[in-house]
Amino acid sequence: MGSRAMIKWSKQITSSQVEQLIRAEKDIQKAILIFDSATAEYTNGFRHDQKTFGVMISRLVSVNQFRSAEDVLDRMKEEKCKTTEDIFLSICRAYGRVHRPLDAIRVFHKMKEFQCEPTPKSYITVFSILVDENQLKVALRFYRHMREVGIPPTVASLNVLVKALCKNSGTMDSALRIFREMPNHGCTPDSYTYGTLINGLCRLGKIGEAQELFLEMETTGCSPTVVTYTSLIHGLCRSKNLNEAMRLFEEMKRKGIDPNVFTYSSLMDGLCKGGRSSQAMELLEMMVGKRHAPNMITYSTLIHGLCKEGKLQEALEILDRMKLQGLKPDAGLYGKIINGFCDICRFQEAANFLDEMVLGGISPNRLTWSLHVRIHNMVVQGLCTGSDLNRAFQLYLSMRTRGISIDAKTFDSLVKCFCKKGDLHKVARIVDEMVIDGCVPDEGTWSAVVGGFWGRRKVQEAAELVQAELMGDFVEPGIGI
Question: Where do the PPR repeat units fall (predicted)?
């Protein structure tokens, strides 16, 4: 590095100066520069210490520069600077955050090499990362290791264990057993324990058991959090028990517990699926009144529900509100609206939304491919029945250029319409393209083509020509080169 980039330090450079500068520097490259230029002062007797090393490591992991962070950690060992548990945990947590749980374990095991004895806090932190990342086998092995090295069970560690066991239907009973045994270990279950169990039971559809625990929780003086209420409301909605879900919603508001976006979304989803979308609309107003910004899921839920009940006008209003909030509708939402218009035979509007979707840059991906194919074909067929042939043909062409597969039924609709109109150039072209696509015209399509040509009195030869040419495409003798 050129000396220009270096910082001029005073002779009395202190580690707290260096630490404050690194902390205050927004740009990570410049922060590294400060750290390195302080290292250059080693000749003048300065040494990095726990504080400067620690802050550099936490800055590096905050921008996912793990290799560099671990290099700094190794330097601490070389320079015989004592490491702290918190420095290790900051690296472990960062690995957890980017879904690399096995690296978190690796760094945890490094503590021993650094003569840094992990306390229960370290064990619980790593155990918790493994559970959050669904590494359940490894997590349970790690828990057994924890107990073997004599880490006593605490409410915190048992809560993580219960959470791990609640993730699979096969281990739900073990979760409940441990919960019942907690008091024997001098650990009283808290709101978090109850919440985890209630959430697990609801996910497995055991709503009755979840409700019993919820009532028991109140008698033990554990206050349910917004998360617990939401789990139960979500579970009740999924099992179509809407009235009980609404009762809980009112109860939590009465107790001064603010519903969050998930609470509203779960209820709206339940109401929409239960054919009560107008009630869901009321919830949207309440939610906005409480300054909760609806998210994609909230809007999708409502639009799906409204379209299902044929309330297209309301669905379009919601779509507009969503756009005003700066959220972009996705293929699924456009699909619902386009479907809705096709259901009531308003194919022009369906085509308008199809255009808007294409202009908005929403193109098919692996997941939405079949949806795109379905709605495009549906709209072209609809436009043919609605005798808007030009638009049907434009859309057909745009499908071809964008590589969206065309159904036999779509080819058939187009051929029949253009035959009726007597536009035989287009008929020939479409049948040609149909054959190129490997889609064999069926009897109905053929008779329409032939009928169209007969009708024009170019009679037999033209029809036979087309048929011969097309048949030739299928029965060409297999001559190799």
Answer: 49-83, 84-118, 119-153, 154-189, 190-224, 225-259, 260-294, 295-329, 330-364, 407-441
